[in-house]
């Protein structure tokens, strides 16, 4: 594997971390790790990661109050990300952060930041979270956003957020922070929402990346498709076979999934060229990142996982344009 593009790679600007801590929404055991641009690049060099696409992780901008403060903060975050890319254009790209609050922010504000990020800041795509204020991404509220993304043939990186009914951040009945268990299920719920709402069918130009191997989707897709068809709960006219076909249109990153068994399940479900590498740095410890990279290299010696993706999603990162030394 000659080139490793990391599509699930977070950055934590100091001002964002301060706002997150002040919100009281950080689950115990998931304290934000220290992050700096210098250490980020050193991590990439140590692990032979050619290029990383930066994104803001969950909970995104939701801790900000009032919600109307999201728009100027998103502009600040996106401008910062663009400056990091500008300083090392072969090593970085970024997914833009969008201000979204169904109860407080008009979609026109969201669309304005989308245009600025893609047109003025040259973002590689945008980050969307699995739900906002109890609305999953297939909800009709989001259709104007999907329409604009479709017109632009945009790349959308979907990252899980805590479910609407998530336990308190200070407690967990099973002994681990809720996101460790809930995040894969949230990704699955969002993916199913996009299929059953016909977002996937109606906006086929959008290229959607699901985090963490698609959550549990590769494992439960056939169960949902067939039981949903039998129970008559799929959209009118949508068969189990069509549900599976649409589920296979997603791209799947391997963040926290490049382990024996799980990785093979994703590779067996996804279409060729639709599996991407992701580290989940800096939330994933470096030792765990290295084990996953080693597992990936054993399975993908020819680099086919990366080869089918880079040109179609991020053509400016084609092989030969990145270097592994800090400039």
From TrEMBL:
GO terms for biological process, alphabetical: secondary metabolic process
InterPro entries: ACMSD (IPR032465), Amidohydro-rel (IPR006680), Metal_Hydrolase (IPR032466)
Pfam families: Amidohydro_2
Reaction equations catalysed: 6-methylsalicylate + H(+) = 3-methylphenol + CO2
Keyword Zinc-finger in record: no
Keyword Transmembrane helix: no
The EC number(s) this enzyme carries: 4.1.1.52
UniProt keyword list: Decarboxylase, Lyase, Metal-binding, Zinc
GO cellular component, one term: cytosol
Enzyme class: lyase
Transmembrane segments: none
Secretion signal, residue range per the UniProt entry: none
A molecular function (GO) term: hydrolase activity
Domain Amidohydrolase-related: 5-301
Family assignment from sequence similarity: Belongs to the metallo-dependent hydrolases superfamily. ACMSD family.
Name this polypeptide is given: 6-methylsalicylate decarboxylase
Organism: Apiosordaria backusii
